[in-house]
Amino acid sequence: MATQEGRLLLLIDDEPAQSRLVTALAAREGWRTIVVETCEEAHEALTSKEGVQIAAVLLDQWVPGEDACDFIRNLKSAWPNLPVMMLTASTSPLLAVEAMRAGATDYLIKPIAPERLLSALRSATRREAPKDELQPMTEKLSQVLDFDAMVGTAAPFRTALAKAATAARGHGHVLVEGETGTGKEMLLRAMHNGSTRAKAPMRLVNCAGLPGNSLESLLFGHEKGAFPGAFDKQVGLLQHCDGGTLMLDEIDRMDLAIQERLAETLETGIVRPTGATHGFRIDVRVFGASDLELDEPVEAGEFSAALRDKLSATRIYLPPLRERLGDIPALTRYFLSRIAEQPGLKHHSIADSGLSLLEAYDWPGNVRQLQAVLFRAAVFCDGEALTAESFPQLSELLGDNPLRGESRARGVGVLLYTNDGNLRPLEEIEADIIRLAIGHYRGRMTEVARRLGIGRSTLYRKLSELGIDNAA
């Protein structure tokens, strides 16, 4: 078993440039990387004296040797607890399904985003893991880019959408705050598509995925020879997106000096590339997204007050999923319908046992994590409906949580579905609702009848027909 101090990553890849990149990125998290070019060499490395220290495997789909999925299957058979991640240029959900069924714990798309790789490595070796179904696998489903895809009826969420829809039709900058996985990027894209600049240039930048100097050149541009290594002139995205929209995700991770420079650019409307003797007037709308509410880092001197204020023409807060648990049934059925559209997968309903389990979890990864969990469950489910048994790792996490027996969002649950995914008979559902009403109104039958919208005599007739005790 690999120790925390001696973590080794086995990279199976025959592309030298990509191998160097992965090795450098992994080193940021304290990993040492062993690079081999074929599956045969990988077997030799795993069975060597040093192989016991290997904590994770990253496999490029196109390495020579055997089929990647067959290799993963054989690897998991011999080392069942070893996390295996697949790296591929394909965005095909079918390949993701095949890799997961073979035993892959994650699936990364080339070119590799630095934060995505580091997140995958952290998840793969988390001490309380492997909780495979909780891995972030949102790359497998293409994003729908309109407000109709933002599912939910919770009041704070609808307020956020209403503000976003109004802002989309305007011209000011926008700041969206909320925990990771709440749907900030999706909201930004929906706003752009609903704006008057929908057909103008648009770019999205993840500020956490780039070193400060690279991000600065990407945004502002630079002249040839402006600094060592500036061999060519580069036009920055602020200039490239003139007349359009620039989206900055994880803006709270941007260096303070770049924040101040961006605030000045938005104030003056003039961008000056590094090393240039003059600037360019621009008309760019900036949408910023932050995992943190920015007031606290501003007070701590860690974020530019000027930039926060410039972006706050409209300020939107997306609530975490734990604050909108009532939306889980609708989100679940929406995601299952989207998943069913993917090659190699079929449509699944969800039984109340599964739904109650989903509602009992706090979802630290929010909507993105819910989607990933449903995707993984659908991959491995052969039946018509997902049940509590479809989420074994989630069941393990919750243990004997008393909230598992009933939904926190729905109070005392009235079960609508059987475990095979079919609706229960109307008579049974009606009986449960009447029992629920009698208990809720403490046996006051006149109030029960009024709240159910039926006459008192009708209520007593139904009690007799359904065999319900008045004191139920």
TrEMBL record:
<dbReference type="Pfam" id="PF00072">
    <property type="entry name" value="Response_reg"/>
</dbReference>
<dbReference type="InterPro" id="IPR002078">
    <property type="entry name" value="Sigma_54_int"/>
</dbReference>
<dbReference type="GO" id="GO:0006355">
    <property type="term" value="P:regulation of DNA-templated transcription"/>
</dbReference>
<keyword id="KW-0067">ATP-binding</keyword>
<feature type="domain" description="Response regulatory">
    <location>
        <begin position="8"/>
        <end position="125"/>
    </location>
</feature>
<dbReference type="InterPro" id="IPR002197">
    <property type="entry name" value="HTH_Fis"/>
</dbReference>
<keyword id="KW-0963">Cytoplasm</keyword>
<keyword id="KW-0547">Nucleotide-binding</keyword>
<dbReference type="InterPro" id="IPR009057">
    <property type="entry name" value="Homeodomain-like_sf"/>
</dbReference>
<dbReference type="GO" id="GO:0005737">
    <property type="term" value="C:cytoplasm"/>
</dbReference>
<keyword id="KW-0902">Two-component regulatory system</keyword>
<keyword id="KW-0535">Nitrogen fixation</keyword>
<keyword id="KW-0010">Activator</keyword>
<keyword id="KW-0678">Repressor</keyword>
<dbReference type="InterPro" id="IPR058031">
    <property type="entry name" value="AAA_lid_NorR"/>
</dbReference>
<keyword id="KW-0238">DNA-binding</keyword>
<dbReference type="GO" id="GO:0000160">
    <property type="term" value="P:phosphorelay signal transduction system"/>
</dbReference>
<keyword id="KW-0597">Phosphoprotein</keyword>
<feature type="domain" description="Sigma-54 factor interaction">
    <location>
        <begin position="150"/>
        <end position="379"/>
    </location>
</feature>
<dbReference type="InterPro" id="IPR025944">
    <property type="entry name" value="Sigma_54_int_dom_CS"/>
</dbReference>
<dbReference type="InterPro" id="IPR027417">
    <property type="entry name" value="P-loop_NTPase"/>
</dbReference>
<dbReference type="Pfam" id="PF00158">
    <property type="entry name" value="Sigma54_activat"/>
</dbReference>
<dbReference type="GO" id="GO:0043565">
    <property type="term" value="F:sequence-specific DNA binding"/>
</dbReference>
<feature type="modified residue" description="4-aspartylphosphate">
    <location>
        <position position="60"/>
    </location>
</feature>
<keyword id="KW-0805">Transcription regulation</keyword>
<dbReference type="InterPro" id="IPR025662">
    <property type="entry name" value="Sigma_54_int_dom_ATP-bd_1"/>
</dbReference>
<dbReference type="InterPro" id="IPR001789">
    <property type="entry name" value="Sig_transdc_resp-reg_receiver"/>
</dbReference>
<dbReference type="Pfam" id="PF25601">
    <property type="entry name" value="AAA_lid_14"/>
</dbReference>
<comment type="function">
    <text>Member of the two-component regulatory system NtrB/NtrC, which controls expression of the nitrogen-regulated (ntr) genes in response to nitrogen limitation. Phosphorylated NtrC binds directly to DNA and stimulates the formation of open promoter-sigma54-RNA polymerase complexes.</text>
</comment>
<dbReference type="GO" id="GO:0005524">
    <property type="term" value="F:ATP binding"/>
</dbReference>
<keyword id="KW-0804">Transcription</keyword>
<protein>
    <recommendedName>
        <fullName>DNA-binding transcriptional regulator NtrC</fullName>
    </recommendedName>
</protein>
<dbReference type="Pfam" id="PF02954">
    <property type="entry name" value="HTH_8"/>
</dbReference>
<dbReference type="InterPro" id="IPR003593">
    <property type="entry name" value="AAA+_ATPase"/>
</dbReference>
<dbReference type="InterPro" id="IPR011006">
    <property type="entry name" value="CheY-like_superfamily"/>
</dbReference>
